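It is worth pausing here to work through a concrete case rather than discussing structure prediction in the abstract. The textbook approach is simple: state the sequence, then state the predicted structure, then interpret. We follow exactly that order.
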Amino acid sequence: MASSGSLGLLISLLVSVSIINFSVAGNFDQEFDIIWGDGRGKILNNGQILTLLLDRASGSGFRSKNEYLFGRIDMQLKLVPGNSAGTVTAYYMRSEGATWDEIDFEFLGNVTGQPYTVHTNVYSQGKGDREQQFHLWFDPTADFHTYSVIWNPQRIIYLVDGTPLREFKNLESIGVPFPKNQAMRIHSSLWNADDWATRGGLVKTDWSQAPFTASYRNFIADACVWSNGRSSCPANSLSRNAWFAHQVDGTNLQRLRWVQQNYMIYNYCTDLKRFPQGVPKECAWQ
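Step two, the predicted structure:
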């Protein structure tokens, strides 16, 4: 965990900033820019729906106008239906620069009737290699579901429909870098990754099924917005902000263990072939 001094500085920064409320559902026109895809990304229904499209020529992607430093991010996604093998729908937070921080959800497609793989990773100072992968207990293509990240100075929590998949704790006290100093934008993209995405690249994209489409709605950022060297936080005080002090305990801990026991399909912390000299030291605490 962060030292009491550095954590105190973070809390002081967040308490002293100007107060803005960002907890209402966002409008995609106002909150995001479609940054690539040559028209394949579209904002519809007066900013209430965003769609990304992938065809043989190109995928597409968007990025938030705001940068955030801590908060809770919720987005509802409906993933590519049918034979989505080879496609990746990436939904993540990332800072700029060569030593970037990043918090990843990536949804790896599969052939019809086979489950999506939910790939998660945490980067700090440009280094990742902290992958955990899951299947889901529902069909993520049949309807919208809420995918959330809670990011505070103590931990990062991944949630699906409010159920925690993963917790990555701040273990700076034992020398593990933790993303806490760089503001991040929200990104999403739909792209072809059939060289690795489905069964390690064995199953290729079936372009006869194109175009592929992923849909987004009900974006909410209950988060601190970074601008001009300052962080502007939601209107309610930090002591009442559930995301700032949130941790996985009680019923949520039971749900996390249920997910990891029944739906986790890969954990870097148990991959001794990849780490023959011993798994990373944070694994004893995650």
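Step three, interpretation. The chain is about 10% helix and 40% strand. Residues 4-16 form the longest helix (13 residues).
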